[in-house]
Specification:
This protein is mainly α. Helix 1 runs antiparallel to helix 2 and helix 2 runs antiparallel to helix 3. It is rod-shaped and about 55 Å long. The chain has one domain. The chain contains three helices and no strands.
Length: 75
C-alpha cells in the first residue's frame, strides 16, 4: 500500500512540475528510474527498522511475545 501511495505522489509531483515547465518527460525520465530503484530500498530499511524496534520492545518487556509476533506479521 505504501508503495502505491509513493508512486501516486511521485507521478502527481512529476506532472505538476512538468506543467510548470520545471521538468520535462523527455529530459527527466531517468528520475523515474531512480525513484523506482530507491523505493524498494527505502521500504526494506523502514521494515528492518520496525523489526528492530519490536525486538527491542520485547527485550525490554514493553510488549509480550504474542504482541511482538503480531507486529512482525504486519506488512
Amino acid at each position: 500500500m505504501i508503495r502505491l501511495i509513493a508512486i501516486l505522489i511521485f507521478f502527481g509531483v512529476f506532472f505538476w512540475l512538468a506543467n510548470l515547465g520545471i521538468l520535462s518527460w523527455h529530459r527527466d525520465w531517468p528520475l523515474i528510474l531512480v525513484f523506482f530503484g530507491l523505493l524498494p530500498l527505502f521500504l526494506y530499511f523502514t521494515r528492518k527498522h520496525r523489526h528492530r524496534n519490536v525486538i527491542r520492545d520485547l527485550e525490554q518487556g514493553r510488549i509480550t511475545a504474542a504482541q511482538a509476533e503480531e507486529q512482525l506479521k504486519k506488512k
